[in-house]
Amino acid sequence: MTSTRYFLFRAALAFGYNRKNIRMGDAAGEMHLLKEAEAHLGEAVWTHVEHIEELSVEYWNLRKISKERKRVAAELEAGENELAEAHEERASLLGATNEPFHDLLQERQTVLEKLEDLARERDRIVANARDIRRNYDGVKLKQEVLEKEGGHTDEELVKITAKLTDLKKKFSDLKGDRHRIAEKIADGDAHIDTIETRIAERKKERRVKASEAFQHIGEGNQKMSTLRAELGLLDTRMRQLYSEIGRHVSRSADPACQKACKSHHGMVEVMRALRKSIQLNHKLAEIS
């Protein structure tokens, strides 16, 4: 509000034109703008007021707090980076399927295929041994009947005995083959058990890593909250000190103050105009 508008509104009061609430509202709005301007001006010029005695406390407090703020801001940035890495690790663990033990799954499949081949070979041997055993039993029965009846030649008995001996050897060979295959199958089963154990261990490792990632995220969020709160308190305190510096240099006629805010002369003039307007609005409100 200018002086001219003040006198116009003052004259209007004489005719019963009362706008007290509006005047108080205008004054409140202008006070808000003034405080914003004071803080902005103080932030812009505080590094130039070191040698102004009246602002010594504010200046050195700002020196101390600004250094502390840089430390907290650096910790906050580092913490945010660590938190981002923890989130990436968590996302990677959650998105993983069988990648951590894909090689073991392939190895297990290869062993299972070999075991299937061995099982088929064992079944073939057992079937051959069964046929040989039936053949042996038939030849043996023939030998017993011929010896009992007596109607045979020595040459015929010799052939039968040779046949039985040959069948025994074949059966014994198949029995050995079956034993060797059984050992290979046992070794394969043991290998499968080892692979399953290694897969379980890797799954457990992944669960542990996921749990650690969740824990890091929780701790990181808590740390970030603490640092943000600390940073907010420092910013609030710095803003208060900026406002005090801005208020002083904009009001003072001291040459050091004028020098400090020389490059912000236009803002200082606006602030003076706001103070005058606030005073005039309060006067109008009081006499309304």
Structural commentary:
This protein is mainly alpha-helical and 288 residues long. It folds into two domains: 3-92 and 224-287, no CATH class; 95-222, Helix Hairpins. Helices cover 88% and strands 0% of the residues. The protein is built from seven helices and no strands. The two termini are 16 Å apart.
Major sheet attributes: none
**Fraction of residues in β-strands:** under 5%
End-to-end Cα distance: 16 Å
Low-confidence parts lasting 5 or more residues at pLDDT below 50? 6-18
Task: Work out the count of structural domains.
Answer: 2
- Give me the count of strands: 0
Q: What is the ordering of alpha helices and beta strands?
A: HHHHHHH
Calculate Rg over CA atoms.
50 Å
- Counted by DSSP, the helix tally is 7
Attribute tags:
single chain; about 290 residues; mainly alpha; Helix Hairpins; 2 domains
List the helices and strands and how they pair.
Layout: H1 3-14, H2 20-45, H3 56-95, H4 102-149, H5 154-251, H6 255-260, H7 265-287
Briefly characterize the structure.
This protein is mainly alpha-helical and 288 residues long. The chain has 7 helices and no strands.
